[in-house]
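Technical note accompanying the year-one report. For the benefit of new consortium partners, we illustrate the data format agreed upon in the data management plan: each record pairs a sequence with a structure-token string. No post-processing was applied to the example shown here.
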Amino acid sequence: MEISLAGLSYSLSSKAVDALLRLYYNKEGIAKDYGKSSFDKKTLGDLVDKNLVLMDVATDESVISLTDQGLSICGAVMFNRINDKKTLFKQEIQELPERAIACLVNRVMWRDIVGKETGAVDEVIKPYELDESMWYEQVLLKDPRMENLLERFYDTLENLGFIRNIDEQRWCSPEVENFLREEYRDIMGLSWTEEDSLKYYYFFYVYAHDQKNLIDFTGDGEKYRSMFFGEGSAPPDYWFSSNRSDPHELLSSLGVSEQRVMGFLDSMREKEIVGERYYPLSSFSFFSDNDKIFVIRDIKAYIDFISKSFLVPVVDSLLG
């Protein structure tokens, strides 16, 4: 006998729906050692009877996973939740800057973590990690205003039950991602000029990161040490590209002008933010002259310079 998914989703208890969604948000749709978890055994038994969950006792651990029908139920539940709370969502976000949120939704928030064939929720919202095609846009989150806005948006989505925080990662179902993309599809994003500005910020950030052992972190620069040595400090996807082994490719891959870069560095040299030096066959050189590098003398002033020149104007525009 064919079972109506919509009807079945409403016949489940709130505990059962919550258990299904916890699996739906869990990586690969599977939970191990369920006997030690907070899953209610009676609820799990009921879900197994309805063919929504499979339970398997492996060699050293017990495993529970969603069936295809369980995945369909989760999709139906999320779809209904979105429809029920769509109006409330619009009310909650009306005070947030629309263009900035649109940029976060369309250009910053998403990345694939598992293949769709696994049947798991396949998107996770995690700052500083995303598709390589737009990696430079993540530098928007280097501005505290954008970082704070993203947190506010996360909180709104979490309060509505659209996303779930699991081990300090916000997980989102495909239904919610599609909903958000559709909501912000026609909102103006970054202009060409703004994208170009973010590319220059990214370039100069990478330049500092690549010569971190030459930077003087004394005085006010001490607080920037974690930016270059701390966990997760490396620019997104930079280390996974050919740029690190051949730094000259960063210029061409970003499409930024070496002449403009040299002009900005000369401006910083005049302000004594950087100092020009020659190192034969230096691995830190990004330029045509392989022996010449600009050593950062004042890291605080350097970050202030690239922020005010390239990042702050873009964020001002998005928030305006």
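Partners are asked to follow this layout when depositing records. Residues 112-133, 239-243 have pLDDT under 50 and may be disordered.
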